[in-house]
Specification:
50% helix
Length: 230
């Protein structure tokens, strides 16, 4: 009689300028420590951060970093891109946390992003960049965004600009303060807990304390590409 062998568990596959104003909103998010594998103090083992009670796992962060590194490796400017993003793990974590704050504010304000708005905005991004390949190259170089992460950048910009329009955040100091106050309140409400090895979250600045991301100061009126729903 043949001995039965246990089937192997298949490996899970690893996750493989629109307007200058809109792109600038996200560019500042991706400013600066190496990628680490455990949560400091082990309060949340395996978590890079906990936002509103939901974990951002180190594995998910590593996957985003890996996708960017793969895209950089395929670029003719590979060495330069890698050298300029030695802090990529922290940049991506900063962005992942911020996206969750954007989603919270959008939900609280009743702001949504329809499929048509997302497609229209991405089309505008591509047109202004001079083509899909140039858009991907620009986002990779300027923001550390891999091609499969572009849709997230589009969604973030649509929501940010619609939120800014709703709260009356224009280029004036008063308008910017309105927006800052809204996001600071949401950040505090989410009770963001970051693995101390990545830094500490600054609710007032809405970013990791060790990064530089004055993104709110760059938000102006929602671009026309957002559509009438803005």
């Amino acid at each position: 009689m043949h001995r039965r062998t246990q089937p192997r568990t298949p490996r899970t596959p690893r996750p493989t300028r629109s307007r200058r104003t809109a792109l600038a909103v996200s560019a500042a998010l991706l400013a600066a420590a190496p990628l680490l594998t455990a949560c400091g103090g082990d309060a949340h083992p395996g978590a890079a951060a906990v936002v509103g009670g939901e974990r951002i796992d180190v594995a998910g962060l590593q996957a985003q970093v890996k996708d960017v590194r793969a895209a950089q490796a395929a670029s003719p400017e590979s060495a330069q891109l890698v050298a300029s993003t030695g802090d990529l793990g922290r940049r991506k974590l900063n962005s992942m946390i911020f996206d969750r704050i954007v989603e919270r504010v959008a939900r609280d304000k009743g702001v949504t992003a329809s499929r048509a708005e997302l497609q229209e905005t991405r089309t505008a991004f591509v047109r202004q960049s001079g083509g899909e390949d140039r858009l991907a190259a620009a986002l990779l170089q300027e923001q550390g965004v891999a091609p499969n992460q572009i849709d997230g950048v589009v969604r973030r910009n649509v929501l940010l600009n619609k939120i800014a329009a709703q709260v009356g955040a224009d280029g004036s100091p008063e308008g910017q303060k309105k927006l800052t106050d809204v996001f600071t309140a949401a950040s505090k409400d989410l009770g963001i807990d970051v693995n101390p090895r990545y830094g500490a979250w600054d609710d007032a600045q809405i970013r990791l304390a060790s990064t530089t991301a004055p993104w709110l100061r760059q938000v102006s009126k929602a671009p026309e590409a957002v559509g009438a729903g803005a």
